[in-house]
């Protein structure tokens, strides 16, 4: 527990007087009404005559003078009082820092989740690629009938009926006869003449 000297209380009294006038309280009585105490209490504070004040009195005095919490003890310790607006700004700044810190933490978590998702997708793609390569290799090793069976179950190469084209040289029976006659040295005209000569 801090122990304050008589000089500390006198220095505090001087600061209270300055702040009272700055806030528009022309007399100790005016300030006393705002704090909810008697003018004598304010007089004792301003002159450093007492050191035993209740916590509620000090808190209400800080509020009436526009000082932030714990400003009276800061002054007693040789420090500076904090104005309420300054204290609000400090609190706002702290809240902003906390919000930014939380946002950064969430962003880091989101980034890690995205990286894990991308990594999982890449692994899946690689696995599928290997399966396709394995299937292609197995298919390349199969025979024609096996490939046909793979592509069209129940299909066999023996089921294919090939259409035989007509012979280019022996397309019809008449053409065949003419060629045969030529081979024997005969012709259709000789055959016709022989028939006419027969009885």
Task: Compile the SSE list and pairings.
Layout: H1 6-22, H2 28-35, H3 39-47, H4 55-65, H5 71-76, H6 84-141, H7 144-151, H8 173-184, H9 188-197
Description:
- The chain has a domain at 6-82: 434 Repressor (Amino-terminal Domain) (Orthogonal Bundle).
- Helices cover 70% and strands 0% of the residues.
- It has 9 helices and no strands.
- 11% of the residues are buried.
Any idea of the CATH class of the domain at 6-82? Answer: Mainly Alpha
**CATH-level-4 superfamily name of the domain at 6-82:** lambda repressor-like DNA-binding domains
Terminal CA distance reads: 163 Å
| Principal-axes shape call | rod-shaped
Beta-strand segment tally: 0
Assembly state: single chain
CATH architecture name of the domain at 6-82: Orthogonal Bundle
Average pLDDT: 76
What proportion of the residues is helical, as a percent range? 55-70%
Order of helices and strands: HHHHHHHHH
* Class by alpha and beta content: mainly alpha
Strand content: under 5%
Radius of gyration equals 57 Å
- The poorly predicted ranges are none
Biggest sheet overview: none
Number of helices: 9
Provide a brief overview of the structure.
This protein has 199 residues and is an all-alpha fold. It has nine helices and no strands.
